[in-house]
Specification:
Layout (H helix, E strand, L loop, with lengths): L1 H10 L4 E5 L6 H6 L7 E6 L2 E7 L4 H12 L5 E5 L1
Parallel strand pairs: 1-4
Antiparallel strand pairs: 2-3, 2-4
Length: about 80
C-alpha cells in the first residue's frame, strides 16, 4: 500500500499531502485519529477527519475515497498508519 500512496502523493502533489504514522511510536496521535486497525487511511482537512479506510485497500477503493474531496479543488491530507 505504501507504493500506491507514494504514487498518489506524486500524482496529486498540489492537492494532497500523504503522511505515515507509526502507531507504536505515536500512540497518542493514532488515538486522536481514531486508528483501531493497521493499516488505516484517514483523510483530513484542517485536522478534521473526512473519510477513512481500515485494512488493506486497493487503488480503485482509495481513489474512490479521495475523488469527491479532490474534486472540490481544496488541499487535503492523508494519514496512513
Amino acid at each position: 500500500m505504501e507504493s500506491l500512496l507514494a504514487h498518489l502523493a506524486r500524482k496529486e502533489r498540489a492537492r494532497l499531502r500523504v503522511s505515515r504514522v507509526d502507531v507504536e511510536q505515536s500512540p497518542d496521535l493514532a488515538s486522536r485519529l481514531g486508528v483501531s486497525e493497521v493499516p488505516s487511511l484517514v483523510l483530513l482537512d484542517a485536522g478534521r477527519a473526512l473519510a477513512r479506510l481500515e485494512g488493506r485497500a486497493s487503488a480503485p477503493r482509495i481513489e474512490r475515497m479521495l475523488a469527491p474531496h479532490l474534486a472540490e479543488g481544496e488541499g487535503v491530507s492523508v494519514e496512513a498508519a
